[in-house]
Design goal:
Helix content: 10-25%
Distance between the termini: 115 Å
Order of helices and strands: HHHEEEEEEEEEEEEEEEEEHEEEEE
Structural class: alpha+beta
Protein name: VCBS repeat-containing protein
Keywords: Membrane, Transmembrane, Transmembrane helix
Number of helices: 4
Number of domains: 3
Largest sheet: 6 strands, antiparallel
Low-confidence stretches: 12-30, 46-73
């Protein structure tokens, strides 16, 4: 009996000890869990704060429009003293024979036999005679042009386009550089145009001479009404790239209008409107109109004081 009571007492003490240990473990676990929660909140707080946007600041991830910033749309109308007159300087001499899109090397018509080529078309130019358009026997891809001399020969002055565009060849009279002559224009691709100017000199009657060629869409016009022809060219392969050519004594001077205007008024392009004889400078949704003057070189003068919205 005594042994049984002793075993019951020992078992009761053991269970009491285990229960006490469990209570101590629970007491220790609660503050430990609380500490972990505090550490987690501290770790999460900076990222949550960084993600909350400040309504008073613009978001760097959302680009603002040019209308909001004004960076791409300078207000020309607000600064008339700066933009009423745009001086473009005295131009550059067109002297290099191989700088695209200009060719100024001198080509004198070379006499060849008609029998050596395949004539495709003949064009009567009146006082200048008949121009033949033809393929060479070893070149069926390009069209060449030559001025008939007699019944058996031609004065050849070079390639004028590609064979696929035979029906698009244009021959017009021209007084470029103050010399009576012709301009032959032909297509050399979907976005490529070749222009060759030919004239005649007293020392070589009947012989066509070409010393200016231009690979671009061109308009010949007397821009300022002084009786002298200028050439406005839109380069074939670069949209919005406009060039201007004018005669100065014995030199051809050219102006890269797009580059020059962009230096004066950033983020713009320029084109020529032939019906109005006006250059138009486009900036975003606004357009500004200018006329050509020869004043201390070349100057563009604002025609209308206010900008118009491009339709």
């Amino acid at each position: 009996m005594q042994e049984n009571r002793k075993r019951d007492k020992e078992r009761h003490v053991g269970e009491k000890s285990k229960s006490s240990s469990k209570r101590r473990a629970r007491v220790l676990w609660v503050p430990l869990a609380a500490a972990c929660c505090v550490l987690l909140l501290i770790w999460l707080w900076p990222s949550q704060k960084a993600e909350a946007p400040d309504d008073n600041l613009p978001s760097a991830s959302v680009p603002r429009s040019s209308e909001e910033t004004g960076i791409n749309a300078p207000d020309l109308a607000a600064t008339p003293s700066l933009h009423d007159m745009i001086a473009l300087g005295s131009g550059e001499k067109a002297v290099s024979p191989d700088v695209y899109p200009i060719e100024v090397n001198r080509i004198v018509g070379a006499k060849i036999a008609k029998s050596s080529v395949h004539v495709q078309k003949k064009r009567d130019t009146g006082v200048f005679g008949t121009i033949d358009l033809y393929f060479k026997k070893d070149d069926n891809d390009r069209l060449f042009a030559g001025l008939e001399t007699g019944s058996t020969d031609l004065y050849e002055f070079g390639a004028v386009g590609e064979a696929a565009y035979l029906n698009e060849i244009s021959i017009t009279k021209s007084d470029w550089r103050g010399r009576a002559g012709l301009r032959i224009s032909g297509a050399c691709g979907a976005s490529c145009v070749m222009n060759s100017w030919i004239h005649f000199e007293p020392g070589m009657p009947g012989v066509p001479i070409s010393d200016f060629r231009l690979n671009a869409h061109v308009q010949e016009v007397d821009l300022d009404g002084d009786g002298s022809t200028e050439i406005v060219a839109a380069e074939s392969y670069i949209a919005g790239h406009t060039l201007l050519f004018r005669q100065a004594e014995n030199d051809v001077l050219f102006y890269d209008l797009t580059a020059l205007i962009s230096k004066k008024i950033p983020n713009t392009y320029i084109y020529y409107e032939g019906q109005q004889n006006i250059f138009k400078v486009v900036n975003g949704s606004l357009t500004y109109e200018y006329r050509y003057l020869q004043k201390d070189g070349v100057t563009l003068e604002r025609v209308y004081p206010e900008a118009r919205t491009v339709q």
